[in-house]
Structure prediction request, 373 residues.
Amino acid sequence: MKVLEADAKALLRAHGLAVPRGTTATTGEAAAQIADDIGRCVVKAQVPAGGRGKAGGVVMADDAAAAEAAAVALLVSSLGELVVNAVLVEERLDIESELYLAVVIDTSAGRPMIMASSLGGIEVEAASGSMTRVMLDPGVAITDGQIAEVATALGIDERGESVIGSGIESAIRAIHHTFDDLGALLVEVNPLVVTVDGHVIAADAKIELDDAVAHPALELSDSAESGTELELEAAERGLRLIELGGNVAILANGAGLTMTTMDAVSHHGGTPANFLEIGGDAYTLAEPALELTLRQSGVRSLLVNFCGAFARCDVMTEGVVNALESLRPGLPVFFSIHGTGQDEAREMVRTRLGIEPFESMDDAVLAAVEAAR
Ligand code: GDP
Ligand code: MN
Prediction:
């Protein structure tokens, strides 16, 4: 299964890699709203294929009007055979260097391998001669030596100058961790950008998941076909809810983060009660979303996991806090909130709900799993 760029970035962000601020839109109006907040931005067609830069699927926009025009043009277009159903509107990076970094299963050796080049970007095929390959041992943690080898391969740009800032090693670790954690077939970041002010950020991302690896979220497509009463009611209200029969209810933003949260719950020995994806519309839809999922039998705790790479945490959290104040569910609620607006969001949870949000997502997941036992 190929994960779209926006979801791939949410997965990478949840594993510690910096990604540009932004969110997806399905209308020109929504794109304009996002751009209004962000300023100078890039509007990118969300299709499961690369080469969008060359095909006109990546458009620079200086203001909201330009973003709206770009989004409208992309949303009525198709790239090759692929229809564009959504665009990602995100902050424009000031690029110093474009690197290529991927972790992939080398099919001939049946082992994971890191591929790295300091000549990333849209001409990467032409740079295949400059690609460094580092074989990894499956089931064995990546070594400091292997990280250093990859960092060295990434560190010299076309002018022969070092581009390694302190961020490069942690970026390598985050990308490898994402691959490992998801049991992925491919995690590719091209370009991995070093910005003019020295930050290392994923400007593009591609993830391919192994359909044979049990990701609870991968069962979605099967269960979505039939649809329980609650699922159909959710669909009517514009929400994607899938009942999974466990006892930890999950509310997270974006399909990628929701999937990661479900995997983390399973990892800690818990069982997710649902897949409930909510996006920037958490503010308006939190109440029906929570009302529906808390109606599921067997739900014993609620885990709210927001990652503000694609939407503001404080806005989403305010929706959830309002909903919890009006619904007053008699069950423990656990929060993990990271990214844009996290401080305001955490303060809101503290003062209005009297709940202390967790610093780490893992601790929040563990607490929710234990409370549901
Ligand atoms: P792909 O062609 O489908 O792989 O799409 P990418 O997301 O990789 O974008 C293609 C190219 O657009 C990149 O290699 C960059 O050169 C350029 N690009 C993408 N995002 C930004 C950005 O935020 N700032 C600038 N200056 N260029 C960007
Ligand atoms: Mn790319």
Observations:
- The first strand starts at residue 2 and ends at 3.
- Residues 353 and 367 are 17 Å apart (CA to CA).
- Residues 50, 190, 204 surround manganese (II) ion (ligand 2) (CB under 6 Å).
